[in-house]
Predict the structure.
Amino acid sequence: MDKTFSDANAITRDFFEKLLLEERLMGSVVPDTSTEIFGHRFDTPITTAALSHLGDIVEPNVESQMQAYARGALLAGAMHFIGMSEEEGFDEVMSVEAKTVRIVKPYADESKV
C-alpha cells in the first residue's frame, strides 16, 4: 500500500509495530506542574497576559470579555494578569475570583495611578 506524507502517523505506527517495540513505564509518576507565586498555589506556572479592553475576540456571547478571560485562568488554575481597566471593569473581573495581578501603568496625571 502506497502511503503519502499525510499518513505520517500510520507510517510511524507501522514502523514501530515491525520493530516489536513495547512501551514500558517503570517507576513513572505524573509530574507536578504546580507552582507557588506571591504566596498562592497554582496548577500551572503559565500565566495569562496582562490584556485589557478586549473586544469580541475571547467569547462573543458573554457580557464581559474580561470576565471570560479571568474565568479561563481560574478554570486552568493559572495566575491571571489584567492590564489597564476602569474600576467598574476591574470589579467585574474580581467577581470571578481568579487570583489576579493588576498592572498599573503610569499616567501623565499621577492622581490616576
Q: What stands out?
A: The chain has a mean pLDDT of 83. Helices lie at 8-19, 65-76, 87-94.
